């Protein structure tokens, strides 16, 4: 149930005009500042606003007003309305303009690919989609999966960069609490755009040549010294040429 009445300022106008409640009582009940209520009474605030009857609209009882008028320290209590229970918590998915709805699969694929740590509920809230659609793209069973290219949802205008950074940071905090060990690639994905740009570059070796870290194309010093000490006065011995017919033999 909401803590304040609907149309608070119009309700304040009605209470000022129709009751002898103090400015503080009206201000506390309507969620306004006491000076603002005084301004309503003086005609400086809410000029032209029509009063909204809280009794007729099931927000306040006459008995509660009577208690307040009899005791200046009494705080008015909003009338319980069973129909309003949980209303402030009822939140649907983010509204996406019709012109951008065709871009949502591309954004979902980008999030699934580059931020697999995000839950379906987080993605749904971020880009305004449904869990079945996210699941279909995760499992590559979406009807148009072969034609979808991953595109950053920020670039598509489906969310703000700050919203994306916040949801990624929450995922990082959750992983840290669970004590999971993250790879270097996961750690890069779990930082904000600003942090990733500030970070220094790191030399990485392609996985295709993993295990060849100690390989070198240059000879060692001992090998070079051995080559320099070799006697090269006899060219034939240096090149280790096979024995063959001599020129004088060929002349005979």
UniProtKB/TrEMBL annotation:
Annotated Basic and acidic residues bias: 178-191
Polar residues bias spans: 192-219
Region Disordered, residue ranges: 178-252
Range of residues in the leader sequence: none
Acidic residues bias (residue ranges): 220-229
InterPro entries: TrcR (IPR010421)
Name this polypeptide is given: Cytoplasmic protein
Species per Swiss-Prot/TrEMBL record: Palleronia aestuarii
